[in-house]
Amino acid sequence: MKLRKKDPWKSAKEYSKELSSLTINLLVRDVTLAKDFAEQVLNAKIIYHDSDFVAIEGYGSRWCLHAYHTYDTHPLMTLINHSKAKGIGVELRLIGCDPDEAEKRAIENGFQILAKSADKPHGMRETYIIDSDDYCWVPCIKITNH
Questions:
Q1: Which of these CATH numbers, 3.10.180.10, 3.30.450.30, 3.30.70.640, 3.40.309.10, describes 12-142?
Q2: pTM
């Protein structure tokens, strides 16, 4: 059940027409905490937010956050309600997001660093950060001298 009291900046149907390629919907316990992580740690741009939903852009990608309560009749909820950790085995990579800076901001904001920033053999410098919903974000940049 949606908690939003007013109409969003555009309808879901209108917004979905703008999306292309791979988009990601993440279910979150607390929309504000998840929005703050995207904005403060990942330096992503918040396009719209309310108590139910957040539309985000950053590093050439778009993604959405949905509060659990908005999925109350969604078939995924039968799985989610029985699982503690979310997204195990999924890396949410943000190519172009400076890993050293993101790691610093994550530490300042109290988020878990799973792996510190390091140059990897596949030509990326990356860090692994766990957000408040246990999603693993991987800010990374291409190593130019590799």
A1: 3.10.180.10
A2: 0.83
